[in-house]
Amino acid sequence: MDNMYYLKDSKRFWETHKKARQVRGKKLAKLPFSEKTAMAERIQADYEVLRNAKDESKQFGLGFIPNATNELSTELSFTPSDFKEALNKVFPFTQELQADRESSKT
Amino acid sequence: MIAENNEQIGFGELPADTLHLSQRVSNLPTVLDELNALVRQGIIKDYAIGGGYAVMYYGIPYSTFDLDVLVVLGSEEDFHNLYSHYYQKGNKIENVYIYIANMAVQFLPNYISPLFNDAIKEAKRIIVNGVPSKVVKVEYLIALLLTAFRPKDKIHIIELAKNADMPALHEILKRFDDGQHVLSKRFKEVLGNS
After folding, report:
1. Among residues A40, A46, B38, B192, which one has the fewest Cβ atoms lying within 10 Å of its Cβ?
2. Of B77, B56, B68, whose CA–CA distance to B96 is shortest?
3. What is the pTM of this model?
C-alpha cells in the first residue's frame, strides 16, 4: 500500500499510455510543416471555442438573470421601502400589478 | 480555380487539401456530441474533459495534440468494449488513441484512480457551441497535473493555482495523497519555485 491512490493495474495502464504518447509525439514531429500549421490552427480554433464555452452552473440560482441581478445586488442594505423600490426598478411590471390590485380594491 | 486563388494570395502551388486543413474550424463540439451519445447508449456512464483541453478551458493557450477524456466505466471489460465500439464503427484507432472527427481522443478510465472518479463526479457543467459537456474543476485539474508532473504541467499548475479555491484544493490533495504525501509535496515545490 505504498501508493494508495492507484489501483493494482494502473502501472501497466500508464506504461502503455506513456509509450503511446512517445510514439505519437515522434510521428507528429515528422509531419510536414503545412500539416503542423493546420494542426496548430485547429487547436487555436478549439481554444477559442472553449474560451467562449458557457458555464452552465451559473444558470442556477439568481446568477442567470442578466443585469437585473447586478442592479439588485448593489442595494443590499434594504429597508422595506428600499426593497420595494429596488424590486420595481428591476421588475417594472410589478408596479403595474400593484396599481391593478389597488384599483380593484377601490 | 483554387490554384489560381492560391497564386493571387501568394501561396504558390499549395494543394487544395492543405487549404482545407488550414481553415480555422474546431471539431471539438462534434467530438463532445459523440461523447454525449456514448453516455446515452450506455457505453460509458459519464465523462469529463481533462488534460490539455481542460487547461485551455481555464484560459491558458496550450498546444496539445489529443483530447484526454476521463470516463466512468464499470470494469476493464467496458474499456475494451469502448474500443470495440469504435473499431466496429470503422474509426481509426492508433495505439491507445481513437480518432473521432479527426481528433485523437485518449480515454482514461475512472477505475485507474479514485481521483479520476471524483474529478468526473464533481466536474463542472459547460456548454460548448451549444453542446452540453463537462470539464474537470480547476482544483481537480491541478491534482491530476500533480500526478503527471511533467515540466509543462508544473508551469500550468502555477497559472491554474491563481484561480483555484485553495482550501478545496488542499482538501482534494489530502484525500487523494498517498502515505508519502507526494502530491502535497509537489504542490509546495511548484509554488515555492514560482
Report:
1. B192
2. B68
3. 0.72
